[in-house]
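We give this protein:

***
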Amino acid sequence: MENGTRDNRLGTQPIIPLLFKLAIPSILSMFIQSMYNVVDSIFVARLSEEALAALSLAFPIQMAQIAVAVGTGVGASSLISRSLGRGDQKGAEKAANHVLLLAIVYGAIAALIGIFLPKNLIGMFTDDLLLIDYGARYIGIILIGATAMYIPMIANSILRGEGNTFVPMVTMLIGSVMNIILDPLFIFGYGFFPKMGIEGAAVATVLSRVISGSFILIMLFRGNNQVKVTFRGFKFDPLIIKGIYQVGLPAVVMQVLASVMVGGVNTILDGYSSTAIAAMGIYFRLQSFVFMPVFGLNQGYLPIVGYNFGYNNAGRVKKAIKTGFMVGFAFTILGFVIFQIFPEHLVRLFGDSPELLDIGVRALKTISLAFPIIGPAIVGSTTFQALGKGMPSLILSFSRQIIILLPLAFLLGKIGWLDLICYAFPIAELIAVTWMAIWLRSTLKTVFRIMEGDA
């Protein structure tokens, strides 16, 4: 009875309360995750500005690693929610089994890269030997411990696919709080902890993920969940993998594109100074406070849209989409106001050198001009995914970040140094969101016409 109630609420409970009930745990957990990212950088910044720059250079590599987990999780969550909407319990459970095995495979691959190629990875973005040394020491440990990241992130997606966002919230809360506690202990060597410097930040991250991963696995295998995970009689089914990556692969590639974009921007900035890299790294860390809550919103939004799309309930799909867009806009307009009013206060959290303040403040104020339209853009991308159409999101993301933003940043940098580089972000977002609005409107017209039986 409990499972039936949990399943049916996606199709019966009022949209706005249901959305917030599902999304608030994820919003809170992602806000805490963002806080960890910022606190992590603040502690590393106390070592030196070069250490902060090295962390910024390692950031796109971490993003690429997380991209595989997030994209695979999105695909699994979408497949599970759509399977449950159709009443296919066995299909949902097969998806859960397969995606957990993928987590182990990806973790092993990342570990091998972390052992043999950390300096090569950082060397893609800079020739500065000090930055390469700092960055390789950090990212090598992160990659070697990658399994501890893949398992909790992908296990969370299984529960989110059935509409359970509370346990994923607790999982991220445990990991983030442990990371914030362990960071100063391992970086600066308080008490009996060794003083490890930048490596200490990586060790703290991996250990916190091991702790949170242990918790989510216990809840996944022993909890009272609608989707039961068991490997008894497991048989590999390539069609399940195909079903996961029909939505998940575009999501992986979209996240990787963000990594490529950040890496490309770092490479452009490397031609100016390590301070410029550090300043842009500050922006990328701080922006997570604005965007991560929207991604948290999507963790509640996606299963509602996906379930009711699978159930052929056009009215609820329409209402969920309208609500999602309004809430996404509200989050990012708030971020815009904060970045415009308090940029200097935000940058000073990481350092107060005149050059860092000058570059950082200008970057925050300029790039945040795009925030009001980014919220709806993120929700629009998730709408395509919830409908099982991952390709439009991929094409839009590739166009925005690779075809428009990077070349524009390079050209503007040649014309007007750092001042103009930052304007590449709002210009690229405006072009991409206009295209997305046209494409999504056309797609939804077709989808609703079919759902309502007029085709």
The chain has a mean pLDDT of 88. The longest helix spans residues 49-85. The chain has one domain: 22-451.
